[in-house]
Amino acid sequence: MYLHLGNDYMVNERDIIGIFDIENSSVSQITKQYLSHASKNARVISCSYEMPKSFVVCLDKDLTETVYISQLACSTLLKRHKKFSQ
Questions:
Q1: pTM of the full predicted structure?
Q2: Among residues 36, 78, 30, which one has the least CA distance to residue 53?
Q3: Beta strands of 1-86 (E only): which ranges?
């Protein structure tokens, strides 16, 4: 199954490592460093120009991490995941 992250972005649910609330998790210095490092290595994809609410960390077949910044809330993404995985 695929999870729609907003606009035209979809990821395979098997590739998802985690879905995080950007407001709560970006308070941590470690998370800030992680996102900064991913951005410097061109591993961040912004799904929208709207205010970001979550980020999704994915690991593809080549073991490459990609961070998707989404305007959708974590709860919305979780509902979408549960809806199709039943």
A1: 0.90
A2: 78
A3: 2-6, 9-12, 16-21, 44-46, 54-59, 65-70
Q: Report d(CA 86, CA 82) in Å as an integer.
A: 6
Phi first, then psi, for residue 32 (nearest 5°) are: -60, -45
pLDDT in tens, 4-52: 999 999 999 999 999 999 998 888 999 999 999 999 999 999 999 899 9
Cα 19 off chain centre by: 6
Closest CA to 31 of 44, 40, 20, 42: 20
**Buried b / exposed e across 14-33, counting CB within 10 Å, b at 16+?**
ebbeebbebeebeeeeeeee
| Distance from C-alpha of 10 to C-alpha of 6, rounded to nearest angstrom | 8
